[in-house]
Amino acid sequence: MKDYDAIEETVFNYFEGYRTKSRELLEKSFVIEIANMKGYMKNEQGEMELIDMSYKELIEQWTNPDYTPFEFSEGNVLSINIFSPIAATVVFDCGGMFLDTFQMLKINNNWRIANKFFVDK
């Protein structure tokens, strides 16, 4: 599989894993030991608030039966920039609700998300 296709597959594994609460897809998408998510999300007052969480925590939250995920009908990869044989960045439109940027690493011939920064649209 070509790197661009493998990167896109990893991003969509994350997207589907979140939507379906699939621990398997989520764990397969991240460098779990180091992966973090940072971003600006609107709080209850409608103000942008900076959040910062590890994916270890997030996967526990997102796969909890009581968690209600955001409803995304589709996601679109806007750009992929492979700037090294083992590093890339991706910009992803997450259902028109969030704009995500991913820093990705190639580890043991598999592309994984190391970090994500997002902005609530």
SSE string, helix = H, strand = E?
HHEEHEEEE
The outline comes out as globular
CATH architecture title: Roll
Query: CA-to-CA gap between the ends?
Result: 33 Å
SS elements, strand count: 6
Structural class: alpha+beta
Task: Describe the fold and architecture.
- The protein is of the alpha+beta class and 121 residues long.
- It has a single domain, classed as Nuclear Transport Factor 2, Chain: A (Roll).
- The protein has helices at 3-20, 23-29, 55-62, and strands at 36-42, 48-54, 75-84, 87-94, 98-107, 110-120.
- A 6-stranded mixed sheet has the order 2-1-6-5-4-3.
- Helix 1 runs antiparallel to helix 2.
- The mean pLDDT is 93.
Give a quick rundown of the structure.
With 121 residues, the protein is α+β, with helices and mostly antiparallel strands. The chain is 27% helix and 44% strand.
Annotation keywords:
121 residues, alpha+beta, Nuclear Transport Factor 2, Chain: A, six-stranded mixed β-sheet, globular
Topology:
Layout (H helix, E strand, L loop, with lengths): L2 H18 L2 H7 L6 E7 L5 E7 H8 L12 E10 L2 E8 L3 E10 L2 E11 L1
Parallel strand pairs: 1-6
Antiparallel strand pairs: 1-2, 3-4, 4-5, 5-6
Helix pairs in contact: 1-2
